[in-house]
Amino acid sequence: MATLLYRLGRFSFRRRRLVAALWLAVLALFGVGAATLSGTTSDTLSIPGTESFRAMDVLKEKMGLGTADSASARVVFTVGGDATLTAPAQRAAVDRAVAALATAPQVAAVADPYTAIAPDQRTAYATVTYRVGPAGVTDEARAALLTAGRTGQTDGVQVEFGGDAVRGGGEGGATEVLGVVMAALVLAITFGSLVAAGLPLLTAFIGVGLGMLGIQIATGFLDLNGSTSALATMLGLAVGIDYALFVVSRYRHERAEGRDAEEAAGRAIGTAGSAVVFAGLTVVIALAALSVAGIPFLTAMGLAAAGTVAVAVLITLTLLPALLGFAGRRVLPKRHRTAKVSFGERWARLVLRHRVPALVLSLGVALLVALPATDLRLALPDDGSAPVGSTQRKAYDQLAAGFGAGFNGPLLVVVSGPGVAKTAGDAQRAVERLPGVVRVTPPAVNPAGDTALLTVVPATGPDAEATKDLVAAIRATTVTGATLAVTGTTAINIDISDKLTAALVPYLAVVVGLAFVLLLLVFRSLLVPLKATLGFLLSVAASFGALVAVFQWGWLADLFGLDSTGPIISMMPIFLVGILFGLAMDYEVFLVTRTREEYVHGASPDAAIVAGMRHGARVVTAAALIMISVFAGFILADNSIIKSLGFTLAFGVAVDAFLVRMTIVPAVLSLLGRSAWKLPRWLDRLLPTVDVEGTRLASAPPPPSAELARV
């Protein structure tokens, strides 16, 4: 592989104008495709085959209800003091708002709030149904909803808004810009050259741009979730910067060794590029393996992000050497640094000198931080997880105060069977007897008389464990002559959470198993891939522990600006595993391939570790700092979900890069000695030789130092 990539690197450097023109043509082609073929995305999470979705299909078929497709909003009216909403002045204010809401853009219907008024007559709400799904509600329609509803804010009436139609687009903007600025600063400090610092950013932006255009094209043919682009952007930037950083660093090293520019580009792609290929493959495996969960929206998101990562690898192997050719000597530092012992080398020698204490202390810290993960609770977000002070959170809290905590998470029970008019009453009485039930509405029977709908109001909120237990109890209830199925937003969220949780273990097994095989090919060792995998699991456990401690238990909540705590979003674990796995394997490959390269070329095990850290620690440190900066920027967001994602990724990268890869890994490799690189002979004969270390390139002598002047 090293020889093939070496030739590719030299070709791309030598024919840089052709390579750049081809990539520009691809970018233009994708741009035209995105402009002409793109469709719309959906924010609806669905898992066909679960009970809640089957029951929802029954409601749509038998009773004409399409609650899963249409966007809706709740406009909540409240009054304080001794006033009530039934008083003439307050009722006039509410009626005025309802009339305005009915004429707002995209609105299909507005329910009378006086059919849904609290017992104390101080809280009522109007359900606004839209003609489009949540993703189709325009910003203008959303603004019109708020304006129309607020026409009722007179005579002491307070108006707040909730529901999926109120939620706007994802947050980012300033936080993403801050992350890019920090990345540029770290790159500039690392390379001592603005041109060298700019190349990883440029190639990462091009890769992300192509990935986004590709996703836009895919929306014309596939049903993609609205969060797909965000995940692909995050990963595309992360790996794009990492891969280019590694190759540029190796290119500068080869130039410092006395090789001319074209030869240095070829060797950088042949050695560092080989590591990039295998690092990229592990990330692609981690993302594509999301399909094993059997969840359509998760599969689509994983494949889209995997495609973006694959593009980043191709750009690094072809466009980056071409750009190095255009940059010339400007990619090199302005002045050569005097020879001195690097921090990576000093750190490696310190760890090797105290390898047992370093290993024990690092493992102890990681396991201690991971302990809270044993209390991990998962749920999907609703208006109750919105920031305190937002109109969604106020509406949620006011409805809970006026109607009870369970009002925000009603359960829809679908009763099916012949003669349902009688059996539905039996079902109502059976459900009413269950603990945790506040109220069950009388059954609504369809004209055919074979389907009825009950609305159950639990005593607890949508994300409470007691509500989940109630859903299970209703599903276990038997009524002679009828079948019961539970659906509604709360039941759907519970089913999605359960499905995601159940998918985590098989997902981990597939990812870890396939990655182990890849690392086996790269390192030709059994113990090194095993160590890499265990180190990754340690990083994930520590990340989950920190996530639970801060966002579920509330530790350091004030420091991170958290107004409230609660269960973790259900998609978080599987996404974190995929993203952290990709980045962890990047750092593992970048550090340990250089260590193996030195060992294969004759260095002793400890000397190889020191040399690998000397050359790789600076790059891995820079890559980790960049990722930490990018992810930590999201902690500044108001949304608690975005905060938690940014915090956990930043924390996970810090643990994996500095604690696991730069401390535990060298300590373990030193303790294993030569046995770390052993492979049974029978297995060695079976495995293909990929030559990641560039052994075949090592025999070529460097050109004369005068060649340094050539570009």
Outline, from the CA principal axes?
elongated
Q: Kindly provide the radius of gyration, computed on alpha-carbon positions and rounded to a whole number of angstroms.
A: 29 Å
**Amino- and carboxy-terminal Cα gap:** 26 Å
- Supply the CATH superfamily name of the largest domain: Multidrug efflux transporter AcrB transmembrane domain
The tally of structural domains comes to: 4
Tell me about this structure:
This protein is an alpha+beta fold. It folds into four domains: 1-37 and 173-334, Multidrug efflux transporter AcrB transmembrane fold, CATH 1.20.1640; 66-162, Alpha-Beta Plaits (2-Layer Sandwich), CATH 3.30.70; 344-380 and 498-689, Multidrug efflux transporter AcrB transmembrane domain (Multidrug efflux transporter AcrB transmembrane fold, Up-down Bundle); 411-487, Multidrug efflux transporter AcrB pore domain like (Alpha-Beta Plaits, 2-Layer Sandwich). Helix content is 61%, strand content 7%. The protein is built from 22 helices and eleven strands. The protein has helices at residues 2-14, 16-37, 51-63, 88-102, 139-149, 174-191, 194-218, 228-256, 261-288, 296-327, 343-353, 355-370, 391-403, 420-432, 465-476, 489-523, 527-552, 572-600, 605-632, 640-672, 681-686, 695-698, and strands at 72-78, 107-110, 123-130, 158-162, 378-379, 411-416, 437-440, 444-445, 451-458, 483-487, 568-569. Strands 6, 7, 8, 9 and 10 form a five-stranded antiparallel β-sheet that branches. Helix 1 (2-14) crosses helix 2 (16-37), helix 6 packs antiparallel against helix 7 (194-218) and helix 16 (489-523) packs parallel to helix 18. The longest helix has 35 residues, at 489-523. The protein is elongated and about 90 Å long.
